[in-house]
């Protein structure tokens, strides 16, 4: 969906509030949340997540309610709240909108009013109306509103074009009782609301790929039990950044996790050895914690299929293996960026992808080490920490990494 403006709240407020005609108060402005396709059956979870996110930012709000499949947020400053809600999982898009009635004349008048606020001289525009629950046909209202806008703004030399070609899109969504005419639309992260799944899931955090796997599990509604596994090339600062990102996606200010470590000597099979050991540690913890689901950060685009089969076979003996990244290839990088991971983390994933894996070398190394001893020592040295994500979170997390 093409946006009517940028996400900069200050610029938007200056344009819409200070300079707009017929906009001396915000009482008819609301925040409209469009749930993702997969959130439609979990709207109560999304509604709670929106309420918690707004309140955690110390923003007062009015009613948060359902209007058909939309979630409407009554708040004094919807422009400021929009990016907060757009950053939640389970949201397809958010819009700052004028609310009006659902009758034909109401929606045409509201569209004209919004168009006068956002369309500048010489710009092209398009009007799109979703109106499947009204007595009139949405297409008729689109034609009427377009003609009215051209008449009202004839001095500005504006032109109506197809939606794909327009400078400004005015999107209106009509429910049975109200119509919401959007002045500003921002894309969300989609997925499911965090915590909407009831099953527990174990996730390890030992590199950028495992962080992405954990984030994808969260995007599918799970709240993972996180185990930080420090290796000999552990990057404490990056790990702290990833934990903050995970807490953000979960909508939590506190995060509880387990921390342990193991060393792996450097060779061409090191990424395989790390994944093997981490999976065995999670398998052992699965029994200790009585958690029967384990997320494995394995993609067949990166790791050999024989190795993926081996790990899945090991885990299947004690738990249910989940592979959030299983069939992702180029999407790995795009998804990592969309979920907030930095370029350095994405480069680290590319580095793993650039490794040449040798089955014989891996087998020889596996024979040379005592897997059970490494796993047992790692679990014995494990500690549990409860961290608060705040101004000093970086130092707190790095200090807690000492195992």
Overview features:
403 residues; VC0802-like; Rossmann fold; four-stranded mixed sheet; 14 helices; 21% strand; elongated
Describe it for me?
With 403 residues, the chain is an alpha/beta fold. It folds into two domains: 182 residues, VC0802-like (2-Layer Sandwich), CATH 3.30.2130.30; 200 residues, Rossmann fold, CATH 3.40.50.620. 42% of the residues lie in helices and 21% in strands. The protein has 14 helices and 14 strands. The strands form three sheets. It has an eight-stranded mixed beta sheet with strand order 2-3-1-4-8-7-5-6. Strand 10, helix 7 and strand 11 form a beta-alpha-beta unit. Helix 6 packs parallel to helix 7. The relative contact order is 0.11.
Oligomer: single chain
Which structural class fits the helix and strand makeup? Answer: alpha/beta
> pLDDT under 50 segments (min length 5)?
1-27
Biggest β-sheet, characterized?
8 strands, mixed
Order of helices and strands: HEHEEHEHEHEEEEHEHEHEHEHHHHEH
The domain count comes to 2
Output the strand order for the largest sheet: 2-3-1-4-8-7-5-6
Q: Which percent range fits the helix content? A: 40-55%
CATH homologous superfamily caption of the largest domain: HUPs
Shape: elongated
The level-1 CATH class of the largest domain: Alpha Beta
Q: Give the count of helical stretches.
A: 14
Mean pLDDT: 86
Gap between N and C termini: 48 Å
CATH-level-2 architecture of the largest domain: 3-Layer(aba) Sandwich
User: According to CATH, what is the topology of the largest domain?
Assistant: Rossmann fold
Q: Could you tell me the radius of gyration in angstroms?
A: 25 Å
Strand content: 15-25%
């Amino acid at each position: 969906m093409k946006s009517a403006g940028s996400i900069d709240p200050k610029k938007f407020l200056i344009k819409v509030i200070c300079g707009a005609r017929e906009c001396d108060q915000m009482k008819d402005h609301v925040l409209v949340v469009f749930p993702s396709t997969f959130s439609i059956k979990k709207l109560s979870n999304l509604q709670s997540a929106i309420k918690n996110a707004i309140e955690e930012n110390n923003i007062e709000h009015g009613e948060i309610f359902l209007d058909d499949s939309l979630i409407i947020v009554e708040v004094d400053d919807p422009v400021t709240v929009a990016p907060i809600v757009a950053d939640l999982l389970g949201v397809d898009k958010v819009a700052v909108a004028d609310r009006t009635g659902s009758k034909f004349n109401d929606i045409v008048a509201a569209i004209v009013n919004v168009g006068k606020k956002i369309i500048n001289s010489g710009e092209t525009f398009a009007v799109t109306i979703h109106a499947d629950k009204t007595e009139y046909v949405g297409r008729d209202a689109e034609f009427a509103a377009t003609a009215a806008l051209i008449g009202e703004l004839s001095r500005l030399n504006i032109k109506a074009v197809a939606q794909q070609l327009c400078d400004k899109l005015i999107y209106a969504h009509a429910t049975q009782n109200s119509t919401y005419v959007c002045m500003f639309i921002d894309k969300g992260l989609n997925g499911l609301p965090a915590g909407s799944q009831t099953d527990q899931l174990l996730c390890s955090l030992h590199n950028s790929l495992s962080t992405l796997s954990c984030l994808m599990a969260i995007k599918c509604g799970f709240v993972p039990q996180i185990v930080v596994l420090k290796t000999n090339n552990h990057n404490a600062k990056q790990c702290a950044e990833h934990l903050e990102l995970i807490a953000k996606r979960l909508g939590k200010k506190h995060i509880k996790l387990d921390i342990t470590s193991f060393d792996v000597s450097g060779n061409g099979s090191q990424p395989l050895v790390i994944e093997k050991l981490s999976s065995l540690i999670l398998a052992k913890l699965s029994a200790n914690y009585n958690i029967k689901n384990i997320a494995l950060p394995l993609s067949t685009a990166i790791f050999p299929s024989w190795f993926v089969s081996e790990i899945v076979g090991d885990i299947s003996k004690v738990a249910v293996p989940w592979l959030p990244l299983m069939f992702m290839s180029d999407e790995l990088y795009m998804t990592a960026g969309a979920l907030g991971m930095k370029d350095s983390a994405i480069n680290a994933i590319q580095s793993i992808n650039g490794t040449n894996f040798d089955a014989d070398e891996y087998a020889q190394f596996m024979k040379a080490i005592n897997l059970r001893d490494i796993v047992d020592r790692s679990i014995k040295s494990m500690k549990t920490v409860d961290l608060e994500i705040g101004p000093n979170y970086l130092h707190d997390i790095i200090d807690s990494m000492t195992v």
